[in-house]
Amino acid sequence: MDPHNSAQDVPRCDLCETALIHNYCDFCHVNLCKPCVVDHISDGYDKHKIVPFKERRSTLIYPKCETHPHKNCKFQCKDCNNIFVCSSCMASEQHGRHKFVEVTEVFKTKKDDIKNDTKELENHISPTYEEIARDLENQLANLDGGYEKLTKTISKQGEQWHREIDIIINKMKTEISEIKVKHRDILQKHLDEIKKIQSLIKETLHALRKIEKSNEVSPTIQYSCKTRKFSKLPPKVQVSLPTFIPKQIDREKLHSLFGQITPLSTATEENVLLLNQFNTSVKELLDEPELIATIQTGYRELRIVISTNEGKIWTSGEINDIKCFNIKSSNVQTIETDSKKIPNDIAIDSDGHLLFTSGATRTVNKVKNGKTEELIRFLEWKPSGLCITSNGNLLVTLFSDDETQSKVVRYSGSTEKQTIQFDSDDIPLYSGNNRIKYITENRNHDICVADCCAGAVVVVNQDGELRWRYTGNPSVTKNEPFQPQCITTDSQSHILTTDYYNGCIHILDQNGQFLRFIDNCDLRDPFGVYVDNNDNLLVCEYGQGNVKKIKYLK
Predict the structure, then answer these.
(1) Looking at the structure, do residues 188 and 312 belong to the same domain, yes or no?
(2) pLDDT in tens, 166-202
(3) What angle do CA 322, 326, 331 make, to 5 degrees?
(4) What is the average per-residue pLDDT within 54-65?
(5) Which of the chain's termini has less CB crowding within 10 Å, N or C?
């Protein structure tokens, strides 16, 4: 067997190329057998480091110094962007009083990082990508079957429509046959009457001709005129045939009546792999939500509550004042708005400034350094709800002056960026009334609107495409129809909305599936709702003027 070409051969000495390896030179990086060790170090170099083969590469290979080529750089200068330096460099004026770190320390730290990264890639990241790939492969494998099922459903609907159309056609044909019988009866009746008169006329003519030829005096003198009797003609009967008036086929309307295919929806979910934090992101719902605190605001009619990063809360009710409280119910700040009517909604921007809408002045306003400044003014629309998005944009709900239309508009500062008003079939997404439509953005960037008068939570994606509507949970009996007032979201992408008339709060997942009610904690008249940074729920009790702080996640 050729020792140099055999794939199954063991490593050989780099010098003799035949003997088995026993040692390794960590300085020259060559494999050595025992006899060749002496030959290798015979050149007089004292820098050779001979170690057992299993312990090879234990000696660090330092970079050569560019300034002093015969020296190795065993340090890094922290004041010079961590460049490599040798002992001579450290003693030079160029690096006087600079701070140095040993390369061995940096090397060890980086080795640990590499080891951890390798472990993370092997144990978590790579398996996660494999799972994603398998899921996509499964989706591709099931693609034809899914679309075939969809096509069969459409064909089945078509067959049902054909049956219904055949039923309509047969019913109309039967109706025509019945009309034909009536038509025939009417004509036949009048024909019989005419023939009867014709028979009388024939008899009369026969009698007249007989008298005309007779010389008898008496029948001739007694004759009376017969033409008057027959000159009054019977009414002419004209029975019109029934007509069929086909309705013009409106293809768009026909299409909408037949059914519709929902557009292809690509929901890109946030899928961030939290390294070394795999058990910290999921919070489950508590079996029984817990009341933590009750904050008394003094409002007679409290509508809105929001929370700041510092734990303070801002509130708004049926008066001009916007009040700020701490957890001890202490009023720490009050802002009196300039509008003659109450603010419609309030929000805190990324700089910590208070924003509020005013339908009376058609404006969105900012409170900065205690002064109110106009941010946006509208001409033919009135603003109602508003929220700040994760990227600092502003979402505003508006309704038209004639209260027939509503829409959502996205702003960057005071610049309009997007309008959301209709679905893919040009059907309005929101009801047109002037009730405030409170709005929020979910963590997956969906835009969620509580449309009270429509009795629905309407959710679109960040492109404005309708994702789903929630119109209440029919499986649980409630006394009043579902009319959502305010809306908020939490760190789990749950959507929470207040059901004022039923005295509870609905919790939905990000796909609109009902999860549970919050109907304990002695909630009365729940209206405004907000989830703070710690996933605690703040709920306004409209008639009582209280803000209740509720823990509902584990």
Answers:
(1) no
(2) 998 999 999 889 989 999 998 898 889 888 888 888 8
(3) 50
(4) 76
(5) N
Q: Which of 414, 410, 419 is nearest to 391 (CA)?
A: 410
| The pLDDT of residue 45 | 59
What SS3 state is found at 156?
helix
Residue 50 lies in a domain: no
Nearest to 491 by CA among 277, 283, 352: 283
What is the number of domains present in the chain? 2
193 and 330 together in one domain: no
Domain stop point among 217, 243, 258? 258
Please state the three-class secondary structure of 356-383 as a single string.
Answer: EEECCCCEEEEEECCEEEEEEECCCEEE
Q: Are residues 292 and 208 both part of a single domain? A: no
Looking at the domain assignment, is residue 13 inside a domain? no
- Return the closest-CA partner of residue 488 out of 543, 550, 426: 550
Q: Helix 143-213 to helix 126-141 angle, to the nearest 10 degrees?
A: 30
* Residue 11 belongs to some domain of the structure: no
Q: How far does the chain reach from its first CA to its final CA, in angstroms?
A: 69
Residue 525's nearest CA partner among 299, 351, 274 is: 299
- In this structure, are 333 and 386 located in the same domain? yes
Q: Are residues 216 and 295 in the same domain?
A: no
Residue 149: both structure tokens together: 């099922």
Q: What is the pLDDT of residue 488?
A: 96
DSSP class of residue 20 equals: B
Q: Judge contact between 529 and 498, C-beta under 8 A.
A: yes
- CA 127/CA 125 separation, integer angstroms: 6
User: 3-class DSSP state for residue 29?
Assistant: coil
Q: Could you tell me if residue 33 is inside a domain? A: no
Show the tokens assigned to 424: 């893919």
546 and 427 fall within a common domain: yes
**Residue 546 DSSP SS3:** strand
Please, which residues have CB within 8 angstroms of residue 377's CB and are 6 or more apart in sequence?
A: 361, 362, 363
DSSP letters along 207-266, please?
A: HHHHHHH---HHHHHH----HHHHHSPPPPP-PPPP---PPPP-HHHHHHHH--PPPP--
Are 150 and 298 within one domain?
Answer: no
Q: What CATH number is attached to the domain comprising 360?
A: 2.120.10.30
What range defines the domain where residue 527 resides? 285-553
Q: Distance (Å, rounded) from C-alpha 500 to C-alpha 259?
A: 34
Measure the CA–CA gap between 334 and 354, rounded to whole angstroms.
12
Tell me, what amino acid is at 394? L
DSSP 3-state percent helix, strand, coil across the chain (nearest 5): 30, 30, 40
Confidence category of residue 475, pLDDT binned at 50, 70, 90: low
